[in-house]
């Protein structure tokens, strides 16, 4: 598994360098999993043209690739995109807008771009945001609530990165509420979240609280926002890196 990942990583980096040399930029395509939406982002626009990289979420990857290729063509012609301004010509019948991406999100979504820019995240990024079928954007009143988590807005909510409502009820134990570190996290296939301080918590200690309270207790919990349905995460202590695996016991 580690060897396969290493080979994939090497091939991905070679493709990035090849495409940037040949085309001036590269598109990183990340397919949706059973929890998070697909997304696509550019690498090389800042180096080649001095323009921000662009990221887009929630559509089919081939559609997003076409959209970002169009953005690249416009940039080559001298176009400079501005935030909070409608642009036509990207999606038939609809306008799109751009917002700035907070650097707090770079490590979460732009890993290969960070590698390309000398293992740093010192470059600007815009998020291309699309509307619902009525033309409403995610920040507009009346936006289709069923699409809320198809494209996270990366200019805000850095204190809460989960693709959930802040008041979602989650399971934990009194030990976590008393300050013991959360070391075991489970994301059940039915969507339920569990946050525990020990591998085998006592059911008599169970508590139901809002997810936002968990992130307030320990902001590092934000970094496992991406945990898929039917997976678990664990760490040796609060300062250790999270480890992940699919957990058959979480699947009905």
Structural class: alpha+beta
The backbone outline, from C-alpha atoms, is: globular
The total beta strand count reads: 12
Number of helices: 7
Write down the domain tally: 2
**Per DSSP, what share of the residues sits in E-state strands of 2 or more residues?**
15-25%
SSE topology:
Layout: H1 2-23, E1 26-30, E2 39-43, H2 45-49, E3 53-57, H3 61-76, E4 87-91, E5 94-100, H4 106-109, H5 111-116, E6 125-129, E7 169-173, H6 174-177, E8 184-187, E9 193-196, E10 206-210, H7 211-217, E11 231-234, E12 243-246
Parallel strand pairs: 3-6
Antiparallel strand pairs: 1-2, 2-3, 4-5, 5-6, 7-10, 8-9, 8-11, 11-12
In summary, what is this structure?
About 25% of the residues lie in helices and about 25% in strands. It has seven helices and twelve strands. The radius of gyration is 20 Å and the shape is globular.
Describe this protein's structure:
The structure is a single chain. The chain has two domains: 146 residues, no CATH class; 82 residues, no CATH class. By secondary structure, it is an alpha+beta fold. The protein contains seven helices and twelve strands. The strands form three sheets. Strands 1-2-3-6-5-4 form a six-stranded mixed sheet. A four-stranded antiparallel sheet has the order 9-8-11-12, with no helix packed on it. The mean pLDDT is 94. Helices cover 25% and strands 23% of the residues. The protein is globular and about 65 Å long.
């Amino acid at each position: 598994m580690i060897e396969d990942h290493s080979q994939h990583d090497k091939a991905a980096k070679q493709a990035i360098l090849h495409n940037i040399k040949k085309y001036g930029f590269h598109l990183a395509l990340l397919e949706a999993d059973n929890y998070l939406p697909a997304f696509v982002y550019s690498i090389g626009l800042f180096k080649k043209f001095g323009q921000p990289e662009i990221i887009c979420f929630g559509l089919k990857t081939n559609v997003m690739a076409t959209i970002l290729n169009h953005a690249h063509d416009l940039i080559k012609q001298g176009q400079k995109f501005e935030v909070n301004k409608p642009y036509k010509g990207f999606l038939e019948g609809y306008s799109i807008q751009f917002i700035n991406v907070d650097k707090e999100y770079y490590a979460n979504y732009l890993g290969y771009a960070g590698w390309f820019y000398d293992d740093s995240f010192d470059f600007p990024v815009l998020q291309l945001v699309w509307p619902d079928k009525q033309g409403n954007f995610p920040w507009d009143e009346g936006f289709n609530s069923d699409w809320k988590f198809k494209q996270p807005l990366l200019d805000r909510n850095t204190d809460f990165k989960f693709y959930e409502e802040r008041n979602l009820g989650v399971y934990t134990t009194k030990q976590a509420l008393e300050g013991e570190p959360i070391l075991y996290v489970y994301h059940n296939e039915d969507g339920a979240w569990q946050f525990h301080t020990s591998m085998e918590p006592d059911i008599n200690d169970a508590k139901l609280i809002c997810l936002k309270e968990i992130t307030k207790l320990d902001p590092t919990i934000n970094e496992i926002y991406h945990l898929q349905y039917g997976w678990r995460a664990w760490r040796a202590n609060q300062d250790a890196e999270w480890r992940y695996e699919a957990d058959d016991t979480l699947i009905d």
